[in-house]
């Protein structure tokens, strides 16, 4: 074999490597785009339909020691919340999908649950930058502290500084990182098990039912963390609680351990139905986007 032949082979290998790199980059960007669109769509649908249940849950958790629950204005703050939920959901799924695929390629097959757990936590951490200010504004409007999002932002920043928009950030991560990790791990593992048992792909109703089950279980398990997060976010400049541990001790001392389960009914209902709708819309949107790829490539 002469030098010319070696050079020819080297050139072919370089071309193949370049094509492989481009395909990997395209796959990553494709997953990112698909996840962002699917996440934004699913998040908007869920939030619009189930917002009143979320409002009731927030008001139940925010009230202290037998206070009156108001059932008016259950859609207060929906528009402003959608402005945050849509990019947050897009960011979460947009980060979750490529992270999940990357980890599944790295880990052995029997460690897929670890890949799903880590990917859920990474997606939750990335989207928290948008989700926390959105949640602070939404919950303060829901509890009647402000009438509109612009007023809420202006007054929060004026009284508490810019960091006021990130009130309860630590408690949010304490709740949402385990929540996102566990919920998506349960969801993905149940889908894998069901596929193996049925020996076929799941249809939309089956995805929705699995999503509802995963959401309801995770929502119940994380309700105490959600209550702590709500109390820290809605307290405003009054600063009844100095932090997570002070909040826990104060609630235990003044209201008892049963207070940590306040709002569990609406939360499980909201996240269960939300998980059903979110999973159904998510998989349907991803399926539709995946079917468009061959046309775009050709």
| pLDDT averaged residue by residue | 84
How many whole angstroms does the radius of gyration measure? 23 Å
Alpha-beta classification: mainly alpha
Biggest sheet layout: none
Count of individual beta strands: 0
Q: How would you summarize what this structure contains?
A:
The chain is mainly alpha-helical.
Describe the overall structure.
The protein has 298 residues and is mainly alpha-helical. The chain contains 9 helices and no strands. Helix 2 runs antiparallel to helix 3 and helix 6 crosses helix 9. The chain starts with a helix and ends with a helix.
Keywords:
mainly alpha; disordered N terminus
Give me the secondary-structure topology.
Blueprint: H1 3-62, H2 78-106, H3 112-142, H4 149-160, H5 169-198, H6 204-221, H7 223-234, H8 244-255, H9 264-297
Helix pairs in contact: 1-2, 1-9, 2-3, 3-5, 5-6, 5-7, 6-9
